[in-house]
Amino acid sequence: MNAQALTCSTCQDGDPCAPCELANPDDAADTVSSRRRVRRGEALFREGDPCLDFLAVRSGMFKTVITGPDGHEHVTGFQLAGDVLGLDGLAQERHASRAIALEDSEVVVLPLHGAGRRDPGQLGRLLPRLIGRELVRKQKLNLLLASMNAQQRLASFLLNLSRRLQVRGYSPAEFHLRMSRADIGSYLGLQLETVSRTFSSLQRRGLIAVQTRHVVLRDRAALLRMFDEIPSG
Amino acid sequence: MNAQALTCSTCQDGDPCAPCELANPDDAADTVSSRRRVRRGEALFREGDPCLDFLAVRSGMFKTVITGPDGHEHVTGFQLAGDVLGLDGLAQERHASRAIALEDSEVVVLPLHGAGRRDPGQLGRLLPRLIGRELVRKQKLNLLLASMNAQQRLASFLLNLSRRLQVRGYSPAEFHLRMSRADIGSYLGLQLETVSRTFSSLQRRGLIAVQTRHVVLRDRAALLRMFDEIPSG
DNA sequence: CGTATGGTTGACGATAATCAAACGTCGTGG
DNA sequence: CCACGACGTTTGATTATCGTCAACCATACG
User: pLDDT, tens digit, for every residue of B178-191?
Assistant: First the structure.
């Protein structure tokens, strides 16, 4: 009944909520151990790599990918500047996913066991909260994958991206997609052709304007209304 | 290419992996603050409830549920004895989901800020690992929801449940489902009719035997082989 | 005994997957 | 500079899977 219960202050719509994790990645760690540049297409880490620290995106954008039992690849998320990467590595102290830069990017390495356990620092205190958010987000993505149609999924994706860009000071109405249709499809559980068709459909209906990777959100209200459907129960 | 990279030692198949979290919930906390009994159908906590501690199942079984933007409910997981509940509440110090007992159950309350921050105790040191696992599990569920068909989803579900029961000393080949077809469907992103049909189909093929909620896994190898499909790429 | 809840099965239709072709863009090398 | 090839995108035609609607059964419970 109470749909609001699940939405945080910046998240009134029905999509996986991912606001800026760390306002300024540099501030988060007491000691920024190091930085690293990653070129477009390169992997920041891979499945099985030891995970002794984790990473915050300073600039650029990443996708995280896991490999299914049949060898098929699946995109589990997209990370913008300020987002934290590699939290799933906490389970085994080995990364469970692969992170690939979608453009030339820079990351900050945040040591997990930094200054010892006595003072976990800002970061240590933040950690449960960060992971909690990640968990909530994945849960919402589960909901999306389990119960939404193609249009709702794509609308959700665009609104989510829009909000995250807005938080970072970019235009929420007009932006450039850094990922391919195949990446979006993998993330949303759709084939790339379906993603393309759904883009076209939303454009015909006047809700957005698309030209390959350039997107304009024309009717945000209508996009939000796509989640008001009558409950099937 | 390397599908093994994602599977832990007790998890060779392609399903969301959820082994026993805490061998003995009583041991985990330095001080078990309290216990609580919950009757079948009752909620242990609800969305928005303050989340100051979290909970481990001592006996029985739970389902966790979130509510979508359209008011539609979605099952996010099932928790057996030893599993931890309420980790998604760490994000906001308020629960993001609702936990409902599928049978008369008992839980242990584990204080988050127990004996102060100086010594977080076993539990404190375990926490990142626990949440990490949860994250990995949700990620695998995402993969399932995004890329598997009905038969694979149900097979995955049954194999997962089987392994978790085995770890707890029950028969991995024959068990009783505590949740309804609707619950399974919600969890797997299928309609309850499809769940029912898929059960029947697996039975016709000789892979399982089902009678309402009683399940026998007849051909585990064949169930596992369902994930060897040729990658579509 | 009757009602309610949950499960099975059938018929049908809709949505998205698949297969296929054509087009645009970008980067490289002739 | 232009030509070529690789890659990504769009669109069409067709198919398959799953969702929807509906009827019917089984079991549990008051």
Answer: 999 999 999 999 99
User: At residue A14, does pLDDT exceed 70?
Assistant: no
Going by the DSSP 8-state scheme, the letter that residue B4 receives in this structure is G
Buried-exposed string A194-228: b where 16+ CB fall within 10 A, e elsewhere: bbbebbeebbeeebbeeeeeebebbebeebbebbe
pLDDT of A196 higher than 60: yes
Residue A83 clears pLDDT 80, i.e. is over it: yes
The lowest-confidence range among A115-119, B55-59, B160-164, B183-187 is: A115-119
Looking at the predicted structure, is the pLDDT value of residue A119 above 70?
no
* Nearest-nucleotide field for B41 (CA, C1'): C5
Asked whether the predicted pLDDT for residue B15 surpasses 80, the reply is no
Give the span between the Cα atoms of A225 and A9, in whole angstroms: 18
State the smallest CA–CA distance between residue A223 and chain B in angstroms. Answer: 13
3-state secondary structure of B198: helix
Looking at residue B230, its pLDDT comes to 58
Q: Is the CB of B31 under 7 A from strand C?
A: no
- The helix/strand/coil state of B134 is helix
Separation of alpha carbons A133 and A226, rounded Å: 25
Rounded to whole angstroms, the Cα distance separating B88 from B79 reads: 14
Q: How far apart are the first and last CA of chain A?
A: 12
Contact A62, A109 (CB under 8 A): no
Q: How far is the CA of A185 from the C1' of C13 (A)?
A: 25
The distance (Å) linking the CA of B184 with the C1' of D28 is 21
The partner residue sitting opposite B74, judged by closest CB among A5, A67, A146, is A146
**φ and ψ of B170, to 5 deg:** -95, 170
Protein-proximal positions, strand D, CB < 7 A? 8-13, 17-22, 27
Eight-state DSSP code of residue A6: G
**Is residue A129 very low, low, confident or very high in pLDDT (cuts 50, 70, 90)?**
confident
Distance of CA B14 to the CA centre of its chain: 15
> Average of pLDDT values for A43-50?
95
Query: How many residues are given for chain B?
Result: 233
- Strands (DSSP E) contained in A17-118 are 34-38, 43-45, 53-59, 62-67, 73-79, 84-85, 98-101, 105-111
Q: Is B113 exposed, middle or buried (0-12, 13-18, 19+ CB in 10 A)?
A: exposed
Whole-angstrom CA distances from B53 to B26, B33, B34, B108, B144 are 15, 10, 11, 10, 31
Q: State the average pLDDT for chain A.
A: 85
Domains, chain B, in order of start with CATH, read 3-142 (2.60.120.10), 149-225 (1.10.10.10)
